[in-house]
Amino acid sequence: MSLYRSAAIAGVAESRLGIVSDATVLELQAEAAEEALAEAGIEKNEVDGLLCSGRWGRTPQLEVAEYLGINPAYSDGTSVGGASFEFHLGHAAAAIKAGLCEVALILYGSTQRSGKERSLAASQNLALQYESFAGLPNPVGAYALAASRHMAVHGTTRKDLAEVAVAARKWAQLNPKAFKRDPLTIEDVLAAQPVAEPLHRLDCCLVTDGGGAVVVVSPERAKRLAKRPVWLLGHGESHSHMLISQMPDLLSTPARDAGERAFAMAGVARKDIDVLQIYDSFTITVLLTLESVGFCRPGESAAYVSGGRIAPGGEVALNTSGGGLSYCHPGMFGIFLIIEAVRQLRGECGPRQVRKHDTALISGTGGVFCSNATCILAGD
Predict the structure, then answer these.
(1) Contact partners, residue 42, CB within 8 Å, separation at least 6
(2) Exposure string (b/e) for 14-27, b if CB count within 10 Å is 16 or more?
(3) CB-based contacts of 28, cutoff 8 Å, min separation 6
(4) Looking at residue 117, what is its pLDDT?
(5) What is an example of a GO molecular function annotated in this UniProt entry (predicted)?
(6) For residue 44, what are the contacts with CB-CB under 8 A and spacing of at least 6?
(7) What Rg value do the Cα atoms of the chain yield, rounded?
(8) Are the C-beta atoms of residues 85 and 60 closer than 8 Å to each other?
(9) What whole-number distance in Å separates Cα of residue 166 and Cα of residue 280?
(10) Phi, psi dihedrals of residue 82, rounded to the nearest 5°
(11) Does the pTM of the predicted model rise above 0.90?
(12) Where are the chain's structural domains?
């Protein structure tokens, strides 16, 4: 089943971001939902689809629906890490096309910074016990293994990784909502404290609080929006493993299959994409995703991002919000990739607005390169 233009994004919003010590995870999601629905010109009682994910409760789907007073006809709690919301976007479109709902609300929220909720200890008694006993820090240690492999096979250097962090910071300096906006140089990244070699502190995403919301509607409902819709052209998803020790190839991620499916559905080529929003949990995540999705060949991602090529004013508009490295990262970043892509396609990004913004690609990564969903969007 093709999802080509079967659904449109009608509204997007973040809650308060950064350090939000005076709100619960439910309040943050409510803030984002209220703003996204208002932007779309849609009343809460019109929402008949609800999709959410998170580690903040035993039954997040039920808790957030109850808190918001929504009784959905369609519900999806797919949880595959930070890519969950790219999965949700495709699932919402499929549900809308199947007639299961007309207005779907995708939600996420986290108070992981103020609540110090980063630990994954609860899952150590399952498969992770076979890696944790050796002292592998999860997830940074797993990403460090992939980075080490990339260096060994392709000659990638820490300076190549630093290019990603510096470009993200330059975009963040144009985003008033970004958590980190102070200047950052290659030398700063190289001199930062080691975390798991070869990844140092500034190769790693932020730890923040925050929430986000995305409203997805049917083509018929899209005719009556307060703002012009953004259309889903293509969607693909894939997952290949849970443990990094079981990853089939450290240099090829599920983005390869997900990307192929998304491009085939959308009927566009890589050269047609104007804006890239690629999950940047760590600097190596961007390099491997660029290769897996096909924007460069294996081993060529370091050259692809070099010399400020992905920074403001460069040839490639990538992670224009500042990404998870400098804008925000409340544990699962995927929903914020969608929010920024929609704003770029609408031309709403002020000083960081990309001049040509007809199409956008979003690539969400979950777990330790475990899952990926790729979405291709276009303006009305």
Answers:
(1) 10, 11, 103, 215, 217, 221, 225
(2) bbbbbebeebebbb
(3) 15, 16, 20, 109, 110, 111, 209, 210, 211
(4) 65
(5) acetyl-CoA C-acyltransferase activity
(6) 33, 37, 68, 69, 70
(7) 19
(8) no
(9) 12
(10) -65, -15
(11) yes
(12) 8-115+209-228, 127-203+235-379
- Least confident piece of the model among 133-142, 195-204, 236-245: 133-142
Q: Residue 17 is encoded by which pair of tokens?
A: 């971001």
Same fold, 8-115+209-228 and 127-203+235-379: yes
- Phi and psi dihedrals of 355, rounded to 5? -60, -50
CA–CA separation, 50 and 104 (whole Å) = 6
Strands 359-366 and 371-379: antiparallel
Nearest by Cα to 211 from 111, 292, 125: 111
- Do 29 and 109 meet the contact criterion of CB atoms below 8 Å apart? yes
C-beta separation of 292 from 259 below 8 A: yes
Structure tokens at 168: 């993200």
Q: pLDDT tens digits for 327-350?
A: 999 999 999 999 999 999 999 999
Give the helix/strand (H/E) hosting 213.
strand 210-217
Output the pLDDT for position 326.
Answer: 98
Task: Judge residue 129's burial from the number of C-beta atoms within 10 Å of its C-beta, 0-12 exposed, 13-18 middle, 19 or more buried.
Answer: exposed
Tell me: cis bond preceding 139? Omega within 30 of 0 counts: yes
The third-level CATH classification (topology) of the domain covering 127-203+235-379 is: Peroxisomal Thiolase; Chain A, domain 1 (3.40.47)
CATH homologous superfamily for the domain 8-115+209-228: Thiolase/Chalcone synthase (3.40.47.10)
In the chain the first and final C-alpha atoms are separated, in Å, by 22
Tokens found for residue 100: 């299961």
**HSE value, Cβ hemisphere, 13 Å, CA-based, for 145:** 17
